[in-house]
């Protein structure tokens, strides 16, 4: 775990760049992480996914599966992959300031 | 005089990650089909390109008349830890399948058709093996619409070029 400055905030990241404390997150931080990961601008659709992931994690303690992300976030699977080509669940978790999802589905 | 050749250095530009997989599904039981689907979906979740190639009884996963009838093998499956004769009783395979499906739903694992739709929408390309299709006397009409094409082994290797091949 290392403390890193992103968007003028000091945050603790794990080896893969996920926030270790979701409370350190804010929206400017999310935009900075997105840019670093190949998403120049977060659209309304990106935000829908990121906030869904984050809320689900904060209420249940686990990130949703890609299946429930596609069914319940309001963004279908095809579009999820257009928004986050390098993996919707993982990237949305990273941008949303929650730990890397460990599920296989 | 002989000269010792130095070991060639590993190419520094060689990728350290898997960028592409081609997964072969060759078995038609529940436990034969799911691993390939899970691996294809898991690849996409990590941004890895994935193709699925269905061959022999693996074709059952994409056959309109069969995908809903996929069963756990209860005979000759030591993993179930029960006498083979018990597994051969009528209805036993259906029961074991139902129990397994219930467990799978609990961990958010979709039924086969939904899984096929999921991987397809995730960008996985699905193909049927030409030799098996000919052997069973099938056509594209027999497959779910997510199947892109019927291809030969040679074409499969062409598509798999540059990636890893996984046989299940």
Structural commentary:
The complex is a heterodimer of chains A (105) and B (168). Chain A has 105 residues and is mainly alpha-helical. Chain A has a single domain (2-95), classed as Orthogonal Bundle (Arc Repressor Mutant, subunit A), CATH 1.10.10. Helices cover 47% and strands 10% of the residues of chain A. Chain A has 5 helices and 2 strands. Chain A has helices at 27-36, 44-60, 66-72, 77-83, 88-95, and strands at residues 2-6, 9-13. Chain A has a two-stranded antiparallel ribbon with strand order 1-2. The longest helix of chain A is centred in the middle third of the chain and has 17 residues, at 44-60. Chain A starts with a strand and ends in a 10-residue tail after the last helix. The mean pLDDT of chain A is 92. Chain B is of the alpha/beta class and 168 residues long. Chain B has a domain at 20-70 and 110-167: DsrEFH-like (Hypothetical Protein Ychn, Chain: A), CATH 3.40.1260. Chain B has helices at residues 30-45, 84-87, 92-106, 112-121, 130-135, 153-160; strands spanning 20-25, 49-54, 125-129, 147-151, 164-167. In chain B, strands 4-3-2-1-5 form a 5-stranded parallel β-sheet. In chain B, helix 1 links the parallel strand 1 and strand 2 (49-54). In chain B, helix 1 runs parallel beside helix 4 (112-121). The longest helix of chain B is centred in the first third of the chain and has 16 residues, at 30-45. Chain B is globular, with a radius of gyration of 20 Å. The termini of chain B are far apart. The A-B interface holds A 65-68, 70, 76-78, 81, 85-90, 103-105 and B 38, 41-42, 44-47, 107-110, 114, 118, 121-123.
Mind sketching the topology for me?
The complex is a heterodimer of chains A (105) and B (168).
Chain A: E1 2-6, E2 9-13, H1 27-36, H2 44-60, H3 66-72, H4 77-83, H5 88-95
Antiparallel strand pairs in A: 1-2
Chain B: E1 20-25, H1 30-45, E2 49-54, H2 84-87, H3 92-106, H4 112-121, E3 125-129, H5 130-135, E4 147-151, H6 153-160, E5 164-167
Parallel strand pairs in B: 1-2, 1-5, 2-3, 3-4
């Amino acid at each position: 775990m290392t403390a890193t400055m992103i968007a003028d905030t000091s945050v603790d990241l794990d080896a893969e760049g996920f926030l270790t404390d979701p409370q350190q997150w804010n929206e400017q931080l999310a935009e900075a992480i997105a840019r670093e990961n190949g998403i120049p601008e977060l659209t309304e659709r990106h935000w829908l996914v990121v906030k869904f992931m984050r809320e689900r994690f904060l209420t249940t303690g686990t990130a949703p599966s890609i299946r429930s992300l596609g069914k319940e976030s309001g963004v279908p699977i095809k579009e999820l992959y257009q928004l986050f080509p390098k993996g919707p669940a993982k990237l949305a978790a990273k941008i949303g300031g929650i730990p890397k999802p460990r599920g296989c589905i | 005089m002989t000269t010792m050749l130095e070991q060639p250095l590993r190419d520094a530009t060689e990728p350290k990650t898997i960028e592409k997989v081609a997964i072969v599904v060759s078995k038609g039981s529940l436990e034969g089909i799911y691993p390939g689907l899970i691996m294809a979906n898991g690849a996409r979740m990590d941004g890895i390109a994935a193709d699925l190639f269905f061959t022999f009884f693996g074709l059952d996963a994409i056959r309109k008349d069969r995908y809903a009838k996929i069963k756990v093998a209860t005979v000759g499956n030591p993993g179930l830890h029960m006498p083979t004769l018990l597994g051969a009783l009528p209805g036993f395979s259906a029961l074991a399948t139902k129990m397994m499906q219930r467990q799978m739903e609990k961990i958010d694992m979709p039924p086969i058709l939904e899984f096929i739709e999921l991987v397809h929408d995730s960008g996985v390309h699905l193909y049927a093996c030409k030799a098996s299709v000919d052997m069973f006397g099938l056509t594209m009409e027999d497959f779910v619409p997510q199947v892109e094409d019927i291809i030969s082994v040679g074409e499969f290797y062409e598509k798999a070029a540059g990636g890893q091949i996984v046989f299940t």
